[in-house]
Amino acid sequence: MSPRESAPARRRRRFRKRCAAGTALLCTAAFMWINNTDLLADHSVEEHGVLAHRGLGQTFGHEGVGNDTCTAERIDEPEHDFLENTVPGMRAAFDAGADQVEFDVHMTADEEFAVFHDWELDCRTDLSGTTRDHTLAELQQADIGYGYTADGGETHPFRGAGKGLMPSLDEVLAEFPDDDLLLHVKSDDPAEGELLAGRLAELPDERLADLTVYGGDGPIAALRERLPELRVMSKAMMTDCLVAYEAVGWTGHVPPSCSRMQLHVPEGYGPWLWGWPARFTQCMAAADTRVVIVAGSGGFSEGFDDIGSLERIPDGFTGLVWTNRADETAAAIHGPNG
Description:
Layout: H1 7-35, E1 49-52, H2 87-96, E2 100-107, E3 113-115, H3 136-139, H4 169-175, E4 180-185, H5 190-200, H6 205-208, E5 211-215, H7 217-226, E6 231-234, H8 235-248, E7 262-266, H9 278-286, E8 290-294, E9 320-323, H10 326-334
Parallel strand pairs: 1-2, 1-9, 2-4, 4-5, 5-6, 7-8, 8-9
Antiparallel strand pairs: 2-3
């Protein structure tokens, strides 16, 4: 500033600086708004897909459910005969219109993979101990419908009907060779991820493209290191992705930590993401990442399980919708053109 600058000149200079700063802020705000609204979204994209959690199985009330709750002992009155994590239940979900079916895997005592939800066997089956205490052959002799009851133990509608219904991972892959599958590794043991990586590495690339694996941080990190082309998700990976995205997502840029994943986003958290829902899901799709909307807080398997709940799916969402009742909701989720 020149010492001879007059007071009016100084005021004019400060005014121009403030105008320039204000204009820059307005331009930035306008860019952020336009870049994160549906204006830039591709509205020709199909609206929703369906993720059938554990195929088709028995449902239960989520009130008061904790990590140690035996949900088989509190099922709703059965409306069908299918049990979760079974080949018939998965087939029924696909027949109902599911685009992806989720199921749980456990490593067995003989280093095979059994498809079953619980770590402990006592809740649902006529065996005791954990899945790792038994060989695959022993587990496949179990009655997986043994513990189900809707009336506090007075009756057990699936006792005897579940004998021999626990499939292996190999059997599921063989039964659904061309379908989109989501594998859930229930442990946090890196050794389980390494064993699973060795099994999946035997599959052709085109089959791997239809598989997604999620679970504990340890096994999923081992999977990603061995099979970087596989779509995966863990809590740590999802946190890294979303923290980075919140920092830069307003620009439309998807950080590398969000590539080739499957993000499970609770419905209440979605509105806090840049570009939610249409722009966000489409930007993630460009990074080979799928987005799944889950009901409530995302805890304890909550899903969009009845027609009324589907009204909460935001307009413009183009990912997968998590449901425990594909038979009730798949057709409606897909819509009239599905």
